């Protein structure tokens, strides 16, 4: 039984509801437009190469600025930065819904990426600050569970709206949801008072990191189309490397005012959480892209059908994320993060057995195991990383872990795409790519075993086993 001071108050519960709703709108936005791309192409008379930037542009701006958003949240107050980010997100959602041409729509999406990059780390920081320390695992489980639910229902909501009242209402839906999250947050989440003594915005660090990450993401996104030896792609890789090198030099010189302070990057458990996330994130991104392609091109599913086909993975992901919190609190990070990494490796390997004769029923077991892995891993590795850092830098820590997820996913997706497009057939390419992903997951599992969470608490593990036997 939890101690009395660990019990959640009404304000804490309402705060968690507000944070979950806010995460839902950000996560849903990543996937809901994926099934609306053909309708957007038709509305504006553009091709897929242009229309896909409705998704890619948002994701890139989000990924580039999320660390900056985390640092600003810790410096100037998480609630303040969240409210500003949510307002930007909501206003430009409406502008996107009324967009008269593709360029206004893309501009609105880029601005929404800025709002999302401010909201996400502020949400993480507020959630972990909202709960007592023994409930940190619950905080991670709730937020990542809400994110998984948002990702899962996104294609379904987007498909229904697109086929009935039009794709523009995907954008309009963001306004009331964001407004509700802002209202509840304003009422129940206290305004934090961060210590700003000597705090300065690291403009040079922000610029260098943004140039470096954006260049690398652009190179990875365009490399599979243009070819990896194309002068533009090589130039982007070089610019990305130069930007990141400059960022490292700048951070050493500015000391405590650094965008990413030395005590954050120097924390061993935090660095291990980021490294494991970087290695493993190719799996989730690749499954989200290539499984629907297989369903559409090999099994003949419609866009909505392919989106619904991901439910065995996405639904289990959402449910497991909620369960991961209590398990983390009882068993600690090493067992839960390790179990998640193992399930990810096993699940993607099961899916790598795909061939031209594979049916949807054949895919379901692998998707379920993969969903368990995603739910256990991301909720728990985020908690392990954030709780390893001082509470005053929680938003920054959460942002860096999420950037590692985006970077790992983008690098892995670029590698996977190259393997798929050069194979003799789509099933063969997916099989090869997923086997490579399984190997990366094993590498991530090794990092978890060696560096995350210290030793396994055998007494708590034995107590849990005896508890289950007593109730069997």
How would you describe this protein?
This protein has 472 residues and is mainly alpha-helical. The protein has helices spanning 10-31, 37-44, 48-51, 53-76, 78-97, 102-130, 136-163, 168-172, 174-188, 203-226, 231-254, 262-265, 268-297, 303-309, 311-331, 333-351, 360-387, 394-421, 426-451, 458-470. The two termini are 20 Å apart. Residues 464-472 have low confidence and may be disordered.
Query: How many helical elements?
Result: 20
Question: How would you spell out the order of helices and strands?
Answer: HHHHHHHHHHHHHHHHHHHH
Shape: globular
Annotated CATH architecture of the largest domain: Up-down Bundle
**Low-pLDDT runs:** 464-472
Mind sketching the topology for me?
Layout: H1 10-31, H2 37-44, H3 48-51, H4 53-76, H5 78-97, H6 102-130, H7 136-163, H8 168-172, H9 174-188, H10 203-226, H11 231-254, H12 262-265, H13 268-297, H14 303-309, H15 311-331, H16 333-351, H17 360-387, H18 394-421, H19 426-451, H20 458-470
List keywords for this structure.
Growth Hormone, Chain: A, mainly alpha, globular, about 475 residues
Offer a quick outline of the entry:
By secondary structure, this protein is an all-alpha fold.
């Amino acid at each position: 039984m939890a101690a009395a001071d660990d019990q959640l108050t009404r304000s804490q519960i309402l705060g968690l509801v507000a944070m979950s709703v806010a995460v839902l709108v950000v996560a849903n936005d990543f996937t809901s437009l994926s099934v609306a791309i053909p309708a957007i192409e038709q509305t504006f008379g553009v091709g897929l190469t242009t229309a896909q930037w409705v998704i890619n542009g948002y994701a890139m701006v989000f990924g580039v600025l999320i660390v900056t958003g985390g640092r600003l949240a810790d410096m100037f107050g998480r609630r303040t930065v969240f409210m500003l980010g949510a307002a930007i997100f909501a206003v430009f959602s409406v502008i996107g819904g009324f967009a008269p041409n593709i360029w206004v729509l893309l501009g609105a999406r880029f601005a929404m990426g800025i709002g999302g990059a401010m909201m996400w780390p502020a949400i993480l920081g507020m959630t972990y600050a909202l709960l007592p320390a023994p409930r940190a695992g619950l905080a991670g489980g709730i937020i990542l569970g809400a994110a998984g639910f948002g990702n899962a229902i996104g294609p379904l909501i987007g498909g229904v709206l697109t086929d009935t009242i039009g794709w523009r209402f995907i954008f309009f839906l963001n306004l009331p949801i964001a407004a509700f999250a802002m209202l509840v947050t304003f009422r129940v989440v206290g305004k934090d008072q961060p210590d700003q003594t000597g705090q300065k915005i690291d403009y040079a660090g922000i610029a260098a990191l943004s140039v470096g990450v954006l260049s690398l993401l652009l190179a990875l996104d365009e490399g599979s189309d243009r070819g990896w030896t194309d002068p533009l792609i090589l130039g982007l890789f070089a610019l990305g490397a130069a930007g990141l090198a400059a960022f490292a030099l700048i951070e050493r010189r500015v000391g405590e005012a650094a965008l990413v302070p030395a005590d954050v990057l120097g924390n061993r458990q935090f660095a291990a959480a980021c490294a494991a996330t970087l290695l493993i994130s190719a799996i989730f991104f690749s499954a989200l892209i290539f499984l629907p392609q297989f369903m559409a091109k090999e099994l003949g599913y419609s866009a909505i059908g392919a989106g619904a086909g991901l439910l065995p993975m996405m639904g289990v992901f959402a449910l497991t994320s909620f369960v991961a919190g209590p398990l983390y609190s009882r068993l600690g990070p090493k067992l839960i993060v390790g179990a998640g990494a193992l399930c990810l490796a096993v699940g993607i390997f099961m899916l790598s057995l795909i061939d031209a004769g594979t049916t949807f029923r054949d895919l379901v077991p692998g998707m379920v195991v993969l969903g368990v892995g995603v739910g256990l891993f991301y909720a728990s590795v985020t908690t392990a990383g954030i709780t390893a850092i001082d509470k005053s830098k929680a938003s920054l820590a959460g942002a860096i872990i999420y950037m590692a997820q985006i970077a790992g996913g983008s690098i892995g997706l670029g590698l996977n795409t190259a393997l798929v497009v050069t194979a003799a057939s789509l099933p063969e390419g997916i099989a090869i790519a997923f086997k490579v992903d399984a190997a990366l997951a094993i590498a991530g599992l090794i990092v978890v075993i060696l560096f995350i969470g210290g030793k396994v608490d055998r007494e708590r593990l034995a107590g849990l086993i005896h508890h289950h036997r007593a109730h069997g």
